[in-house]
Fold this protein.
Amino acid sequence: MNAHIQAETHIEVHKFYGGAVAGVAFLALVVQAFLHKFGGKAEYLELPLLVTLYFGLSRRNPISGLLLGTAIGLLQDGLSHMPIGLYGIAKTFVGYLASTIGARVDVEHPMSRFAFTFLFFHFHQAVLATTEWLLLAQRPQYISGKLLVASLVNSLVAVALFPLLDRLRKQP
Amino acid sequence: MDIPSRHRPLVLLAGVMLAQVLLLAFQIKRDRDVRLIRLWSVELLTPLQRAGTWLIGELHGGWRGYVDLRHARQENEELRTELGRLQLRNRELESRAAEADRLAAVLGFRQAHAEVPMLAAEVIGASADAASKTVYINRGSHDGVRRNMGVITPDGVVGKIIEVFPNTSMVLLLTDHDSGVGALLATSRTHGVVKGEGEPFARMEYVINDEKVPDGEEILTSGEDRIFPKDLPVGTVAGTQDGNPFKIIRVRPAARLDRLEEVIVLLTQRELNPQNEAEPAAPAAKSGETATSPSAPTKQPEQKPAQQPQKPGASPAPAKGAAKPPVTAPAKPPQ
């Protein structure tokens, strides 16, 4: 227990410049919409998820994490043809869990970032599928090779993207 | 409401999730184009509405049942009272109908024998002595009733007057020990005397053992006692057996002596045969006395019994054969 508390005390809580979070989130949505315009391989990317995950893991505040996830998710819903709330619910969960986990585990290492992104990507898709199944009475095909490729792609992108976002942190 | 800080994220998460689920529900349409929020609302509220409706219905039904029960109880009491009143009224009407039937029979009898002076009377009491078969009627000397006058009903002989008071009279019934009526068998015309035995059945005497008397044969008055006119029904043969020296014949009285209510007092001994109008009328009839209503007093008849009553036990001679039996009407001596 004491070791656990000591571990938590060594985890740094990062703060970002004003408007950085909102700007990055907005940019991610724009880029996501822009890339999806071209279809093909671009559909594998889930930039709003990566942004939500990053700020959740970095800020380590469950409230801000879930609110950011909610906002990004609802905006993503607004840009899609799906009922508003599907992505909102999924990203709210992701933001909350990422913040909670980030407060306990060091997620600065590239490998851990890759692993967390991989897991959260599938968690995000699982919540999406569950919500569609429960509310929309649809049975989406969850397990597929495309999903696996997408999760790997996003994990790799996260490993590359997160250090760039680290630059937006305020220096202690 | 103060929420612990460590629980705030969870509470916020729950709130945000709920809000988004509701947001989705507002947009999603299920089968038949019904929005999910409406479907949920209906499914959420319908059981409550159903429960509320059931509860209100039960309360309303219970209240109605209670009120109805109170009304039903009151109505039941009223109906019971009404039923009792109607049952009483019904018995009264039945009694009146029976009385009307009896009076109609009496009236019919009187109309069939309009030439014979007679007086309708009502039985108002009976003797206090169980061994004495007597009744009282509401006619007396003021109505023209005299001793030894015959008393009958449309069914047959009842008895005779043995005591006369100003407004009442005592009738000795056919079944009394001291009673005797001159009678004959309807078929063989064999004469005898019907005597009472203090029992519901009477006995016909002075019929020889050789006489064949079938059960059920009718017994009529012979008219020889000078009290009852000839051929009035006395009763029927209820059984016979040989005796010494005469046959013992049990007689079932024609009149219902155990339930007398209206009777007819014969003011004459004239035969009750409407075809005998040419025969001389009795003095009472000649004097203008005819049948009267039970309540109308009549003049005293002039006709008297031709023979004084004998003491009980004065046995007359046998009837059939050489000499007819001295048919008499034994009566109790005046007290």
